[in-house]
Amino acid sequence: EAGVVQSPRYKIIEKKQPVAFWCNPISGHNTLYWYRQNLGQGPELLIRYENEEAVDDSQLPKDRFSAERLKGVDSTLKIQPAELGDSAVYLCASSRTGERNEQFFGPGTRLTVL
Amino acid sequence: AQKVTQAQTEISVVEKEDVTLDCVYETRDTTYYLFWYKQPPSGELVFLIRRNSFDEQNEISGRYSWNFQKSTSSFNFTITASQVVDSAVYFCALRGAQGGSEKLVFGKGTKLTVNP
FRET partner for B36 with CA separation of 20 to 30 A, picked from A45, A101, A106, B99? Predict the structure, then answer.
C-alpha cells in the first residue's frame, strides 16, 4: 500500500512570493490533514478535511493561507504571500474516518522563506 | 483545553541501555486516544501505537513497551536494549472524542540519541 505522497520535498522562495504544496493521501482514507511543524516543535493542525469538506480550519491563517480538496482525494495548500515566519515543514496526513484511527503522515515539504 | 507535555527535550544513551520517554497529558474528555509517533532524521512521522482511554492494559511490542496510567495522566514509552536505529524524535499525542477536541495535539517531542 502506497503511503501519503507530498511534493515538493523542499521549497525555497523569497518573501511575498506565493507557494503551493500538494498531497495525495492513502487510498481509501477519507480524512486528510495539513499540519505545520516549526523547528523543535510538534506538528500543529492547520486544517482537516472529511472528503471534500473542511471540517476544522480554525487554525488556518486565512488572510494568506488557503487549501482545497476539490474531489475529496488529493489536496493543495497555498500561501500567498509568504512571510519569513512561514518557514517550517508542512506535513500532510490521512486516516480513515473516526477519531480513534491513527493518522499516517507524508514526508513533508520543508519551506524556507528568505 | 488539551495539552501534552514531554518534559525531556533530549536524551542520550549508549546502545543496549534501556530508556523511558515520559508523556503527561491533560484533557477533560472522558473518552480520548493517546498515540506515540517516531520521527527519524528523514522527517516522516511513523505511527507506533494508539491507546484508548478505557483500556489501561500495558502493551509490549518487541523492544517497545508502553505504560498507560490514568491516575497520573501519563503514557510513558520504554525502549529496551536500545539500538542506534532508535535515534529519532519521539512525539506523544492526544486526541479527544468530544465536540471541539477531535484534533490531534502533539507534545514538543523528545530527541533520543543512541550512541554506539
Answer: B99
Dump pLDDT digits (tens) for A56-73. Answer: 898 899 999 999 998 889
Record the cell numbers describing residue B83, joined without a space.
539500538
Separation in Å, CA of B100 to nearest CA in chain A: 9
Which chain B positions have a beta carbon within 8 Å of A88's beta carbon?
A: none
Q: Which of B37, B44, B54 has the highest number of chain A CBs within 10 A, making it the mutation to test binding with A?
A: B44
Would you state the cell numbers that stand for residue A27, as one nine-digit string?
Answer: 487510498
**A52: exposed, middle or buried (C-beta count within 10 Å: 0-12, 13-18, 19+)?**
middle
Residue ranges with strand state E in B6-116: 10-14, 19-21, 24-26, 32-39, 46-52, 59-61, 64-69, 74-79, 88-96, 104-106, 110-115
B65 within 8 A of B49, measured Cβ to Cβ: no
Cα separation, B3 vs B23, in Å, equals 10
pLDDT by residue for chain B (116 residues), tens only, comes to 789 999 999 999 999 999 999 999 999 888 899 999 999 988 889 999 999 898 888 888 899 999 999 999 999 999 999 999 999 999 999 998 766 557 889 999 999 999 99
Which of A42, A108, A110 shows the shortest C-beta gap to B108? A42
